[in-house]
């Protein structure tokens, strides 16, 4: 089953489907927002959650880096907690803190009370996707969602956490409750991504931002079955699917086993090493350290060239392709001009 647009000239779609792109494709996580003055000006009139649920605002913010940087893909402006809010969980995105959950999940009754995500609850997101498909022309659109483990961490901790202590304690001490929670979050994630795919996104990315806090054994036992179900359920749509986490060097092989087309790599692991950890033919995405962008152009140019060279070595070592990206999101203090110059440099290589 496929309802995808035909974008044969897209370097990004060529790379993530194992074809040879005309140039090294590049896009940036968190390219929509944060570092852009036009984004900050728009956000003065909208809270983060409100912005994520207004289709015209989502469309405008998503388009801003396309106009400015000439990146090879757009990523939908949203937040990983949007489907939680749509499913009735009371939360807010607090400036300089992140998502804060009003009533954290602590008991079996809390888990049982969680409601499924109804398609109509995410209509604003789907409407934004439809607007973007019309507006982007030949530029592909990436949809995304938070992976079940990362969503579970926010729900159990009540917000961002350094050690994820409550989350891991629940996981280890009460595995039946844990898997019940993860099963509900897997259903929610699938529905959120299914809605985006139905509205027309060309690819998806699953962010397991906090998976790197786990050992490989714990990841395999408590997380991998649920992430695998996300990818297995959505495979029928035949869209390229990326799996990304931070600090996941030891998990890259298992994350690749979950079933994505592409595995994202952070800056701690070389792309060549990553190619040896994932299945042959897996496309790799990454992996410039976002902090490099603050160090001046000579440093940026040298580091970017090194990433492109490393990507070529990774392909020679069996990777299915390479998409240039950062190893995590654009930092707010990044000079947008440096990002524009970086895209131009990568395209020239």
Automatic annotation (TrEMBL):
Pathway: Porphyrin-containing compound metabolism; protoporphyrin-IX biosynthesis; coproporphyrinogen-III from 5-aminolevulinate: step 4/4. It catalyses: uroporphyrinogen III + 4 H(+) = coproporphyrinogen III + 4 CO2. Substrate binds at residues 30-34, 79, 154, 209, 328. Pfam families: URO-D. The keyword 4Fe-4S does not apply. The keyword Cytoplasm applies. Keywords: Cytoplasm, Decarboxylase, Lyase, Porphyrin biosynthesis. GO terms for biological process: protoporphyrinogen IX biosynthetic process. Residues 25-34, 142-158 form the Uroporphyrinogen decarboxylase (URO-D) domain. Gene3D superfamilies: 3.20.20.210. Its EC number is 4.1.1.37. It is found in: Cytoplasm. GO terms for molecular function: uroporphyrinogen decarboxylase activity. InterPro entries: UROD/MetE-like_sf, Uroporphyrinogen_deCO2ase_HemE, Uroporphyrinogen_deCOase. The record marks 79 as: Transition state stabilizer. GO terms for cellular component: cytosol. Homodimer. PANTHER family: METHYLTETRAHYDROFOLATE:HOMOCYSTEINE METHYLTRANSFERASE RELATED (PTHR21091), UROPORPHYRINOGEN DECARBOXYLASE (PTHR21091:SF169). Catalyzes the decarboxylation of four acetate groups of uroporphyrinogen-III to yield coproporphyrinogen-III. NCBIfam families: hemE (TIGR01464). Belongs to the uroporphyrinogen decarboxylase family. HAMAP family: URO_D. This is Uroporphyrinogen decarboxylase. It comes from Mycobacterium ahvazicum. The lineage of its organism: Bacteria, Bacillati, Actinomycetota, Actinomycetes, Mycobacteriales. The gene is hemE.
